[in-house]
Specification:
single chain, 320 residues, mainly alpha, Formate dehydrogenase/DMSO reductase fold, 81% helix
Length: 320
């Protein structure tokens, strides 16, 4: 019983963070996916790609609103629990200021990119440029977030109640991240595309009656979004496995002797493979709307997989 309770305990504690990660990375990944689809529409002269790009762009705004709500709630909760954290959120020297700037920059471009889709339809190059800049803003926010985490954890290692470094916030972003930081940012980028496409499948199913573009459109769009969910998810699975094997090289037996870690990683792999199966079937199906139940469940399976891999990694780190 204890063997099962420990993974459940870790997973339940990390579930809120996993949901927050899913929302934040989906918001970042959706504009990237929308711009790629819009460029594809222009290159192939296929209107269905453009319609799908517009839907994904609208989804990105929804995800950013959810992200801001969750971020505000988390900031309120943690600053009430730990008074010393307030400085990190409001100080003009805090590296979090760069996160605020990149998110604001992204939204300032993403809103007109989404709202002026029809009015800018005859000026596609400019519209694509607007979306590309918004997408780059989201990618920049990944870099800002990873560098902020690095600074915070370095300060925390030096003192139990870490203070904001007495440096201009911009100084933290003028240095090239170390290999570990670049790998983490790259993994977040892959996850952003995977999460965005995953929630995109659910969004298309939910909007089926509202945005009724006809049976042919959904026969086209669902396989496209399933393909964009499968490819980065598979890449993410390979990347995470490689990182774990690399980190455990000196003590590989820990992966197999630690029941909690093994169970958490096993559950994560199971749900990731299950999602890949859903997306492959939808991708190759002649009647993809028949797989709407799988597409509806896929984002929730993604969150479970993300939660359990974090739980396994945390337990492994504590064991080492």
């Amino acid at each position: 019983m204890n063997t099962l309770m420990e993974p459940l305990r870790l997973t339940s504690h990390l579930l809120p963070k996993a949901v927050g990660d899913f929302i934040a990375l989906s918001a970042i990944g959706a504009p990237i996916l929308a711009v790629i689809l819009e460029i594809t529409a222009k290159a192939k002269n296929k209107i269905f790609y453009d319609k799908l790009a517009k839907q994904i762009a609208s989804l990105s705004l929804i995800m950013y609103v959810l992200f801001l709500i969750c971020a505000a709630g988390a900031a309120t909760y943690f600053t009430r629990q730990f008074d010393w954290l307030t400085e990190w959120f409001i100080s003009t020297s805090s590296p979090l200021l760069m996160v605020y700037i990149t998110v604001a920059f992204t939204l300032a471009l993403l809103i007109p990119y989404t709202m002026f889709w029809k009015s800018m339809k005859k000026n596609k190059p400019l519209h694509i440029l607007l979306g590309a800049c918004a997408a780059l803003g989201g990618i920049a926010s990944i870099h800002a977030a990873t560098m902020t985490m690095k600074v915070f954890f370095m300060q925390q290692a030096a003192a139990p109640f870490p203070k904001v470094p007495d440096l201009p916030f911009i100084d933290h972003f003028l240095v090239l991240p170390e290999a570990a930081g670049l790998c983490l940012a790259g993994l977040y980028l892959i996850m952003a595309l995977s999460f965005a496409a995953s929630i995109g499948g659910l969004y298309l199913v939910l909007r089926r009656n509202k945005d009724d573009f006809g049976r042919d459109y959904y026969k086209f769009s669902l396989p496209v979004i399933a393909k964009w969910a499968f490819i980065p998810t598979f890449a993410q699975l390979v990347a995470v496995a490689a990182v774990i094997i690399y980190l455990c090289e000196p003590a590989k037996e820990l992966l197999f002797s630690n029941n909690t870690t093994a169970i958490c990683f096993g559950i994560s792999i199971f749900f990731t493979i299950l999602n890949c199966a859903i997306w492959i079937v939808t991708w190759k199906s002649a009647t993809p709307m028949r797989h709407k139940i799988g597409l509806t469940l896929a984002p929730f399976f993604t969150i479970i997989a993300h939660t359990t891999v974090m739980a396994g990694a945390m337990n492994l780190f504590l064991t080492i």
